[in-house]
Each structure stands twice: as C-alpha cells, then as structure tokens.
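subagent[fold] <- orchestrator: predict structure for attached chain, return tokens only, no commentary.
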Amino acid sequence: MTNRITVNYGLRWDLEQMQHEQRNRETQFSPTIANPSAGGLLGGTEYEGNGIGRCNCSFEKFYPWMIQPRLGVSLQLDAKTVLHAGSGYYSGPQLFMNEEIYSNQGFGFNQVTLNSPSYGIAAGQLSNGIPYSPSALTATNFDPGAYPNIGQLNSPPSFIVPNNGRPPRFVQSTVGIEREIVNNLTVNVAYIDNRGV
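subagent[fold] -> orchestrator:
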C-alpha cells in the first residue's frame, strides 16, 4: 500500500464431495418408521439410497459454501518496530472433520459367520479356508425391524445429523508487535484469538 503498510488478502474456496460407502449401504435410526421387532412402535432402521426398501434420500447433505476470506496488515512504526494484525475464516476439511462410523445394521456385508454344528465340534478349520459367498457379504434385507433382536435390548443404529456435511469453522484473529533488539535478533509478542463452531 505504502512504504510502511503492507496488506495481504486472500480467498480460499473448498469444494469437497461427501464421502459415502461404495453402494450407499448405510443405516440410521428413524423415529418415524414403524418397527416390527418392537410391536409396530415408531423407531426403526432406515436405509440410505434409492430404490425399494430405501428412504430415497441421502443422510448427509453436501455443503458447497466453504468460502474462507483472509486479511492481514503490517504497519512499520519505525525502523525497528512492526505492528502485525490479521484475521481469517477457516473451515475444516470435510473428509477429516466429517468422519464417522456408519452403521450397517441390516446389511450382511463384511462379515462371515461360522456356526458349530454341535456343542464341542469346531465350526471350521482355517486350513480348509473360510467358506463364504460374495452375495452373502453384500446381502441386504432392508428390514426396518433389524434391531432389536427378539428378547434382546440391542442398541439401534445411530442417527446421522443431516448437516454433517457442513464442516467445522472458526475465525482466527491476531495482533502482534515485532521489535528488532540487535542485528539478526527480533522479539515478537502477539495475541491470538480463535472462535469456532
């Protein structure tokens, strides 16, 4: 700006798509679905995606407005002293801040069960390999009453907050003064303020 004033400014805009399981095989608890495993009471398992047995929806919404302005100013007070001030708006990356353990209750993927034919008899031998079928690993029944199991108190699927797609955000502001003590030695004192959501 002048020989004594320097202004730095910038704008960052991140567009990161939502992460999903390969075939949208996620479930969540829905308070509006009748649960046949609980006598038809409301509160059953909901299945993400489109098609029969699914909610025809996406549990999380993509947030496209990760716009992050930044501004900094440096003012030279004298030959040995500089005043710095700046502020910036930041968003956390969706891929890291939005990680969660998706519930897959009601799906059979990623699990193989070996049952013993009788008490005291091994369910199988590792030397014979683990018998499984690819279709069983990706099987789906879309049962709203997947939980609780009859006679048990299983926890229902977790509820996925629809605005999970909006990343955490915070404003960072700083004011500092830098002073040269001797040649090649400076001291910098600063106040930094972080406010986040």
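orchestrator: received. Logging for downstream: Strands lie at 5-14, 27-35, 41-47, 66-78, 81-91, 169-182, 185-196. The first strand starts at residue 5 and ends at 14.
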